[in-house]
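Worked example 2:
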Amino acid sequence: MSNDFKLNVKVRNDMGKGASRRLRRLDKEVPAIIYGGKSAPQSISLSQNEFDKALANEAFYSHIITLDVDGKSEDVILKDLQRHPAKPVILHADFLRVSKTQKLQTKVPLHFINEDNCVGVKLGGGLLSHNMTELDISCLPANLPEYLEVDVAAVEIGQILHISDIVLPEGVESVALSHGESHDLPIFTINKPKAVVEEETDVTDEAPAAEDEEENGSE
């Protein structure tokens, strides 16, 4: 992996909504929790500014993060974020402990490449449609990708790409596909231009009328 993320955090003993509000307002820190593994859940807090900078990097969401908890390192992934409904404020964060020897399940972003050169768009004037922007995967921490690339250069109008069309790195599995072929959901398609769809609809609507005229004329 190209990025290394390390955050300094503090153990938090003052609990409750009031304490969390004071932490965010006065100390400019974000309340959070570390859970999972064989250790008990641990309440922590981290610098709002430092956290915001990390969140600005897409790789942070699908990367192993090292938390320095009072001199002790914890390897985690970001599992959940609670955001304020109206303000650009992080209310709480959940971090899940990971083990080098145990598979983890998380989401990674999908990067669709060559959209500008896509056959269905360049030659057919089709419209891009992203059915998914991220994928649930399972892998060991060492195999965790920052993102998955999907090359759409050869996709034609009406063609649909599914999860099974994603080239997964070695050691990475799709959680959905592990449940069977019926879970092979669409991720990307090129739709016909609106004008073409309307034209085809008009032709279909007029066809019965034309047939009726032919029948009346034959009588």
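The radius of gyration is 25 Å. The chain has two domains: 5-98, 105-197.
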